[in-house]
C-alpha cells in the first residue's frame, strides 16, 4: 500500500512539474526542460540586469549562458565572460546561443520580436517590472520556477527581505532623516520615488522620502520644484554632488547649502534594482546615520 502511494506521489509531482514549466514558456522545449536532469530550464539567457546575479545564486553557473549588457552592479564581476546582450536588439545573437528560455521584462514580453523567439522554440518568460523590493520578491520566486528550485528561491527571497527590513533597525523614529533621491544629467534633474528601488533604499536606510507625497516613479524636477520641496538631505550618485550645487538656483535648496546635506553613493550600488538594494541601503544607512553626522 505504501509503495503504491509513493508511486502515485511521484507521478503527481512529475505531472505538476511538467505543467508548471510548460506554463512558463508554452513551448515543447519547455516540456523537454522539465524532464532534464535537475529539472527546469538548462540554458537560460537573462536580459534583466537586476536579476543576472540572482540567477547565479539559484542555479548551477553553466545554466546561465548569457546576461544583460547593462549590468554594471557591484556584483557584476560574478558574471564572468558570458555574452552580454542588449535586450531584444540582439535578437539574432540570442537565437544563435540556442537558449531554452529567455528572461525578459513585461515590455519585452509583449514586443513583436519576442514572437521570433517563441517561433524558434525558445520560452519567453516575463519576470515582471523592476520597481524595488515589492517586485523583486515575486521575481525571485519566478526564477525558482524557471530553474526548478522553488525552496531555494523562497529562502533567498525571504532571507533577503528580512535583512533589508532590518537595515535601519537601530534608527529610532526620531532619528530618521528626511530627504530625496536626485540625479543630474546636463541641466536636467531626475528623481526616483514611490514605485522605484530608490524609494525603497531610502526607506530601508532610515530616510523618509519627501518626494513620495507628491510624485511617483521617476519624476523630472525643476529647480523650482526642489526649492519648494526644500529637502535637508539629497542622496545622489558619486560625482553629482558638486554638479548639483553649481546649478543655478540650487543654492536655495537646504541640502545644497549644508556641507553635509548631500550624500553620494557608488552608482553601481544605487542603480541596482535587484539584490544589491540591500548593500545600497546598508551603505546609505551608515553614511546618513554615522555618529556625529
Short description:
With 293 residues, this protein is an alpha/beta fold. The protein has 14 helices and 11 strands.
Description:
The structure is a single chain. With 293 residues, this protein is an alpha/beta fold. It folds into two domains: 21-163, Rossmann fold (3-Layer(aba) Sandwich), CATH 3.40.50.1980; 171-288, Rossmann fold (3-Layer(aba) Sandwich). It is 43% helix and 15% strand. The chain has 14 helices and eleven strands. Strands 6, 7, 8, 9, 10 and 11 form a six-stranded mixed β-sheet that branches. A five-stranded parallel β-sheet has the order 3-2-1-4-5, with helices on both faces. Strand 6 (177-185) and strand 7 form a beta hairpin. Helix 1 packs antiparallel against helix 2 (28-34) and helix 7 runs antiparallel to helix 8 (150-165). It starts with a helix and ends in a 5-residue tail after the last helix.
Mean pLDDT: 88
Counted beta strands: 11
Number of helices: 14
CATH topology of the largest domain: Rossmann fold
Structural class estimated from helices and strands: alpha/beta
Amino acid at each position: 500500500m505504501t509503495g503504491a502511494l509513493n508511486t502515485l506521489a511521484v507521478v503527481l509531482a512529475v505531472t505538476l512539474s511538467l505543467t508548471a514549466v510548460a506554463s512558463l514558456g508554452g513551448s515543447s522545449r519547455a516540456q523537454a526542460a522539465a524532464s532534464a536532469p535537475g529539472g527546469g530550464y538548462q540554458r537560460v539567457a537573462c536580459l534583466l540586469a537586476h536579476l543576472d546575479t540572482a540567477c547565479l545564486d539559484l542555479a548551477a553557473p553553466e545554466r546561465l549562458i548569457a546576461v544583460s549588457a547593462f549590468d554594471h552592479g557591484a556584483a557584476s564581476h560574478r558574471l564572468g565572460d558570458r555574452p552580454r546582450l542588449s535586450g531584444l536588439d540582439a535578437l539574432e545573437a540570442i537565437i544563435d546561443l540556442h537558449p531554452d528560455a529567455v528572461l525578459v521584462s513585461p515590455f519585452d514580453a509583449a514586443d513583436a520580436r519576442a514572437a521570433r523567439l517563441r517561433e524558434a522554440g525558445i520560452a519567453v518568460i516575463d519576470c515582471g517590472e523592476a520597481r524595488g523590493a515589492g517586485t523583486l520578491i515575486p521575481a525571485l520566486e519566478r526564477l525558482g520556477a524557471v530553474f526548478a528550485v522553488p525552496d531555494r528561491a523562497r529562502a533567498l527571497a525571504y532571507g533577503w527581505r528580512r535583512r533589508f527590513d532590518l537595515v535601519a533597525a537601530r534608527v529610532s523614529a526620531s532619528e530618521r532623516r528626511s530627504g530625496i533621491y536626485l540625479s543630474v544629467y546636463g541641466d536636467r534633474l531626475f528623481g526616483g520615488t514611490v514605485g522605484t528601488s530608490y524609494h525603497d533604499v531610502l526607506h530601508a536606510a532610515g530616510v523618509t522620502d519627501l518626494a513620495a507625497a507628491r510624485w511617483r516613479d521617476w519624476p523630472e524636477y525643476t529647480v523650482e520644484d526642489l526649492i519648494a520641496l526644500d529637502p535637508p538631505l539629497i542622496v545622489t550618485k558619486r560625482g553629482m554632488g558638486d554638479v548639483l550645487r553649481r546649478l543655478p538656483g540650487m543654492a536655495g535648496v537646504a541640502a545644497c547649502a549644508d556641507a553635509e546635506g548631500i550624500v553620494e553613493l557608488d552608482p553601481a550600488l544605487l542603480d541596482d534594482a535587484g539584490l544589491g538594494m540591500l548593500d545600497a541601503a546598508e551603505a546609505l544607512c551608515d553614511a546618513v546615520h554615522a555618529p556625529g553626522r
